[in-house]
Amino acid sequence: MARIGVFVCHCGTNIAGTVDCPGVAAAARKMPGVVFASDYKYMCSEPGQKLIQDTIAAEKLDRVVVASCSPRMHEPTVRRTVAAAGVNPYRMEMANLREHCSWVHQDKPVATAKAIELVGMMVAKVSRDEALRAGRAELTKRLLVIGGGIAGIQAALDVANAGYQVTLLERTPTIGGKMAMLDKTFPTLDCSACILTPLMVDVAQHPNITLMTSAEVEEVHGFVGNFEVAIRQKARYVDHSICNGCGTCWGKCPVKDVTSEFDQGMGKRTAIYLPFPQAIPNKPVIDAPHCRSIAYREAQLKQAAEQGLSPEEAGKLKPVGPDGKKLVPCGICEKLCATKAIRFDDTDRVVKERFGAVIVASGYDLFMLDGSHDEALAPQARKPYYGEYGYGRYPDVITALQLERLMNASGPTKGEVVRPSDGKHPKTIAFIACVGSRDEKVGRPYCSKICCMYTAKQAIMLKEHDPSVQTYVFYMDLRAAGRYYDEFTRRAQETFGAQYLRGRVSRVYPQNGHYVVQGYDTLLGRAIEVEADLVVLANGVTSARGSVDLMQTLGISYDGYGFINEAHVKLRPVETNTAGIYLAGCAAGPKDIPDTVAQASAAAVKVAGLFARPFIETEPTISEVNQARCVACHLCEEICPFGAVTFVEVKGGRQVAQINPAVCKGCGLCTAGCRGRAILLHGFADQQVLAQVESLFARPVPLRAARSEPEPLLSK
Amino acid sequence: MTAYAYYPGCSLHGTGIEYAKSTNAVCRVLGIELKELEDWNCCGASSAHTVNPWLGHGLVARNLKLAAATGLKDVVLPCTACYARFKETTHALGDPAVAARIEEVAGGNVPRDLAIEPLLKIVVEPARMEHLQASVVRPLKGLKVAPYYGCLLTRPPDVTHFDDPEDPQTLDQLMRVLGAEVVAWPGKTACCGSNLALTRTDIALDLSHQLLAWAEAAGADAIVTACPMCHSNLDTRQGQMRRSGRGDHQMAVYYFTELMGVALGLGLSELGIPKHLTDAVAPLTRVPAEARS
């Protein structure tokens, strides 16, 4: 006979405020198999856990029901508690009196009655729980970091320094991320390059780090300790294993008018290029759509395909362009390359690698006024925002990151701040804060956190570049919460003379070579105008391009803005909802550099903690096939979302289903779908579930449907 | 012919008679049949809804009932002020509690299935734009226009759902189809002063003067609008601006329907263009009268 103990938690007033907890315990004492029931203020606390353990010993309990909160947070805790006292952790059930009862009801007698029913159901289930034991799976001690910005760099270095192998994946040709584009960083005004580039070099030289640039995650299978990841290495057209980065190729490339992504459109680059002088790897790639040689080769291949020739024969063809003119291959870089590293016939390759853990550090993008970040919408449905600012219409209305490139000594103007329209030095500069932040109208109600600070930084830097400038900042609220942050924004105003105007801008328009910025000063209570030479928009933070696709590939949960959801906002801020996948930086919402680096190191510790274990413990609540009953209909194989079902031959040459315990997640789809009732989901057997239903309706449910007592398939 | 229930509003029977004439003429050419509501009443613009919101809604509700009686589902309004009033009420009908009160005021069910459309939106429907493009016989070559949307056509955006509220493009595109040159100017959606012309004429004069100055600075020959209120402030008050020392303007202000009519080869008198207080005939004399082959 089972000996069940019931422990009712008050959760402070969370449960006790709406549920009569001692009453629930008293009712539980009368339930079948219950030999002890009690209530306590915080069951998850040290005294609460001790109460459970002491009672297990004193009352010789072999099963426990804890009536408290959702199992999502505390089930592992309580399982450990009962296991330490000798009860099988899978003979512990939690009745959810908080989320399912007290938080959603107001009437105490009704809520108490419901709580008693919830406890009754769990008592019924626990009395039929089998003793289960966790399984073991191997652990691949190798980390994949997705994203080579400061978050990914820091996480990769920390884990590599702990002695584990790390692959750092970056989709652009260089690591460094947004931080590499910055000139200075707040609040100390360190030069961004001076603090970042040494870390980039460390990554390149670290014996434990494999760097993959121009590469993206294509597929992810498996589970914690055993992720199988398909990585697409995009064609670079340059063999980095022999290229020595001498620079001859990009110096001589005749295609010189490609818009530079790294310079945010403020500068030009060649078709074969290094994104910036300190790029890592410090070797070029070819931008295929702009390369004449690649265009020539593609035209040859297309023509060959049309004429039914083999790709080898294509080399002899003399293709013409869409305009009817003969195409001319360029080939200059190939001719000049001393190491013969140019590969015009390079193609994408997909490699499969095994990892034990993943850190997602995929970063952010800026809110774009042309609406191009609205990836959930079809391209033709995307609409421009903030037409009143004239971004895209007026050349001297630029984004803060564009200004950052202009201020950067290695930027397109070598650090000269000049107007894009006429190359003149602007003397009056107006900033507009909260462009794409805290604005429901553009679908971005959240604060981007960094804009107040980088605007103050830029106001200071502009004054340092040219003491004769005057800056104006139109802001909504000044949010400078952080160490030395408020002092910093104050310095921008008091020492560097930035004029802060509290209000929104309604219109920007050109007049006599300047831009009139019309706004409203809510402190003065009157409309104001500033005549500026340059207008800088403090664009907010959005999730990085392609984030949602990446999250779906990884199978992790994300919010409506494409940012990753943390496993617990406060207590598990660097973990995702999927075991073994961690996060760092702006992939989970706007963050500044200090917060990003802190998260990266935190995620690294989580990974190091995981890798320090000898193996992975797997949940025993998974499905198992009764092979005697399996008729090999293959339905389970079709419906399993994890590919856990395979077929094996048993005695007599019969095919039967088999479930790989390392891959099964215990979702129960196969169990529900099996026509022959041949699959059991441990921990959720029919008798257990039906016992709960019986308890609720206080009458027996015919057990003939139960898998343990199956009827013949072709019963009359 | 496509038929629409047509609500002209008071302006088109009075100060904006040239808007009415040009609307009728252009719609005839484009195959748009306008069925004027029988016994329509004031939309309540400017005064009624500011004094009593239920009176404002009630006036519109009565017109909606008349529109429903025509059996047509689309109601077209040339005047943007009327359009704004109608849209405010149809929007308000989305809230059951507010709708109940409106129906109490209006004395019975108020139809909810009518599409309230500004005339501008009707004429730029893709099929009609194609028709229009093919029908232009006198392209407005060399005429530089500043498209002026005013405030009521696109705002509030959650109510009107018409074009981009900050940088609308509908009039711009229409003018380009007519062959006119569209100038970039900051006044597109700025306020003309509206009915402050009656109570605080100084403010309306300041705002309208600013609009004319912007259009001049942008090199425009004319302003084109869809609103009788804006038209009134911009066209009829240039003398007052001169006399009060605000500025010396000589800027023609057209309804978009007038310029459509010109491009379609209709006579200026038929369109009411000679009725403007600021000469609107002269700028058109520079547009070649050539017929397109």
Report on the architecture of this protein:
The complex is a heterodimer of chains A (716) and B (293). With 716 residues, chain A is α/β, with parallel strands linked by helices. Chain A folds into four domains: 4-134, 3-Layer(aba) Sandwich (Rossmann fold), CATH 3.40.50; 142-234 and 353-363 and 544-611, FAD/NAD(P)-binding domain, CATH 3.50.50.60; 370-542, FAD/NAD(P)-binding domain, CATH 3.50.50; 618-705, Alpha-Beta Plaits (2-Layer Sandwich). Chain A is built from 17 helices and 34 strands. Chain A has a five-stranded parallel β-sheet. Chain A has a five-stranded parallel β-sheet with strand order 20-27-21-22-23. Chain A has a four-stranded parallel β-sheet with strand order 2-1-3-4, sandwiched between helices. In chain A, α1 packs parallel to α4 (108-126), α4 runs antiparallel to α17 and α10 packs parallel to α11 (451-465). Chain B is an alpha/beta fold and 293 residues long. Chain B has two domains: 2-120, Glutathione S-transferase Yfyf (Class Pi), Chain A, domain 2 (Up-down Bundle), CATH 1.20.1050; 137-285, Rossmann fold (3-Layer(aba) Sandwich). In chain B, strands 2-1-3-4 form a four-stranded parallel β-sheet. A four-stranded parallel β-sheet of chain B has the order 6-5-7-8, sandwiched between helices. In chain B, α2 (17-30) packs across α15 (256-263), α4 packs across α5 (80-92) and α4 (53-69) crosses α6 (96-106). The mean pLDDT of chain B is 94.
